[in-house]
C-alpha cells in the first residue's frame, strides 16, 4: 500500500537492484581491516540490531563512507553489514538512477528511498559514489544536478522517523571528488587501507585452502613479503594466476583426471608474480591519507 503512489515500472527497476541471493558474509570472512570492522560493528550493526537501545544521542549515523584504494574490501564490508543485520541490500550505481527521460532520475531516487523504508532494515550501497555525488559545477547538466539535489534531500529524510533503520553506504576510490554537502551527510568516513602482513597471510591461507598445494610455511612468508603493497584483489588475482601453473603442464586438458593435475608449487607463484603486480603505488596512497587526516573518522 505504501508504494501505490509510485510508478510501477520504477519500482521494478529499483527492485532489480536488490541482492536477494547474496552469500552470507561473516566478519571472519574479511581478512584484516580490524579497525574498520570494529567501528562498523559498534556504529552500524549494533544500532540496527537493537534500535530500542540506540536512541537519542546514541542514534546511529545514517551515512557511512568507505574510501580507499581499489580492491581493499569496501564492497565486502558493506555486504558484511547487510549479512550481520539481516538487512535488505540495495546495490546501486549511478547508472541505476539515470534515465534518458527528463525527470525520471529524481523519481528513481524517490522510489529507491521509498522502497528502502518499506523493506527496512535496509542497506543502500552505492559503489563509486563519487560518480553520483560529485562536486557540483556551473557546467554540469541540469538533469544531473537535479538527481544530486533529490538524493541529498532524501538522504536527509531517511532518518527522520525514530523507527527508521536505513543505512546509506558509499564506497569510493576518489573521496576528494565528492560534493561537500554529500560528504557532510556521510557522518562516518572510514579509510579502508591496503591489507597488512597479517591480512595478506590470512587471505593467502584462505584462498589456498580451496586448492591442492605444496607450499610450506616458509614459502608463504616469502609470498607475504613479496606482496607488500598489494590490495586484496591483487592477492586474489595472484593466487588465481598461480593456480593455472599446474594446468599449463597438462598435455591434454580434455582427458586429464582432476586428481592427476599436480599441486600448486612455489615456482608457480614466482611466475605469477611476474604477471600480477600491485595495482596501487605508494604515491597513489597520498590522497587517501590526506583525506583521512582532514575528514576521516
TrEMBL record:
<dbReference type="InterPro" id="IPR041569">
    <property type="entry name" value="AAA_lid_3"/>
</dbReference>
<dbReference type="Pfam" id="PF17862">
    <property type="entry name" value="AAA_lid_3"/>
</dbReference>
<protein>
    <submittedName>
        <fullName>AAA-domain-containing protein</fullName>
    </submittedName>
</protein>
<dbReference type="InterPro" id="IPR050304">
    <property type="entry name" value="MT-severing_AAA_ATPase"/>
</dbReference>
<dbReference type="InterPro" id="IPR003593">
    <property type="entry name" value="AAA+_ATPase"/>
</dbReference>
<dbReference type="GO" id="GO:0005524">
    <property type="term" value="F:ATP binding"/>
</dbReference>
<dbReference type="InterPro" id="IPR003960">
    <property type="entry name" value="ATPase_AAA_CS"/>
</dbReference>
<dbReference type="InterPro" id="IPR027417">
    <property type="entry name" value="P-loop_NTPase"/>
</dbReference>
<comment type="similarity">
    <text>Belongs to the AAA ATPase family.</text>
</comment>
<keyword id="KW-0067">ATP-binding</keyword>
<dbReference type="Pfam" id="PF00004">
    <property type="entry name" value="AAA"/>
</dbReference>
<keyword id="KW-0547">Nucleotide-binding</keyword>
<dbReference type="InterPro" id="IPR015415">
    <property type="entry name" value="Spast_Vps4_C"/>
</dbReference>
<dbReference type="InterPro" id="IPR003959">
    <property type="entry name" value="ATPase_AAA_core"/>
</dbReference>
<dbReference type="GO" id="GO:0016887">
    <property type="term" value="F:ATP hydrolysis activity"/>
</dbReference>
<feature type="domain" description="AAA+ ATPase">
    <location>
        <begin position="60"/>
        <end position="196"/>
    </location>
</feature>
<dbReference type="Pfam" id="PF09336">
    <property type="entry name" value="Vps4_C"/>
</dbReference>
Amino acid at each position: 500500500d505504501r508504494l501505490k503512489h509510485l510508478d510501477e515500472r520504477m519500482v521494478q527497476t529499483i527492485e532489480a537492484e536488490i541482492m536477494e541471493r547474496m552469500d552470507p558474509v561473516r566478519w571472519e570472512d574479511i581478512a584484516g581491516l580490524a579497525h574498520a570492522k570494529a567501528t562498523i560493528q559498534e556504529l552500524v550493526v549494533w544500532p540496527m540490531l537493537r534500535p530500542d537501545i540506540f536512541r537519542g544521542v546514541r542514534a546511529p549515523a545514517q551515512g557511512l563512507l568507505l574510501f580507499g584504494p581499489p580492491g581493499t574490501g569496501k564492497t565486502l564490508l558493506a555486504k558484511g553489514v547487510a549479512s550481520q543485520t539481516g538487512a535488505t541490500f540495495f546495490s546501486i550505481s549511478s547508472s541505476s538512477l539515470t534515465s534518458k527521460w527528463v525527470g525520471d532520475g529524481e523519481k528513481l531516487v524517490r522510489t529507491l528511498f521509498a522502497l528502502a523504508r518499506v523493506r527496512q532494515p535496509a542497506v543502500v550501497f552505492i559503489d563509486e559514489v563519487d560518480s553520483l555525488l560529485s562536486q557540483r559545477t556551473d557546467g554540469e547538466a541540469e538533469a544531473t544536478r537535479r538527481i544530486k539535489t533529490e538524493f541529498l534531500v532524501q538522504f536527509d529524510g531517511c532518518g527522520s522517523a525514530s523507527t527508521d533503520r536505513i543505512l546509506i553506504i558509499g564506497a569510493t576510490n576518489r573521496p576528494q571528488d565528492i560534493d561537500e554537502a554529500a560528504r557532510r551527510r556521510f557522518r562516518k568516513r572510514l579509510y579502508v587501507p591496503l591489507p597488512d602482513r597479517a591480512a595478506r597471510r590470512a587471505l593467502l591461507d584462505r584462498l589456498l585452502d580451496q586448492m591442492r598445494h605444496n607450499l610450506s610455511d616458509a614459502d608463504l612468508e616469502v609470498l607475504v613479503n613479496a606482496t607488500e603493497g598489494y590490495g586484496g584483489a591483487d592477492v586474489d588475482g595472484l593466487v588465481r594466476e598461480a593456480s593455472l601453473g599446474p594446468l599449463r603442464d597438462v598435455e591434454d586438458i580434455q582427458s586429464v583426471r582432476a586428481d592427476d593435475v599436480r599441486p600448486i608449487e612455489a615456482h608457480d607463484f614466482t611466475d605469477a608474480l611476474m604477471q600480477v603486480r600491485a595495482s596501487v603505488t605508494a604515491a597513489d596512497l597520498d590522497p587517501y591519507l590526506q583525506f583521512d587526516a582532514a575528514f576521516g573518522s
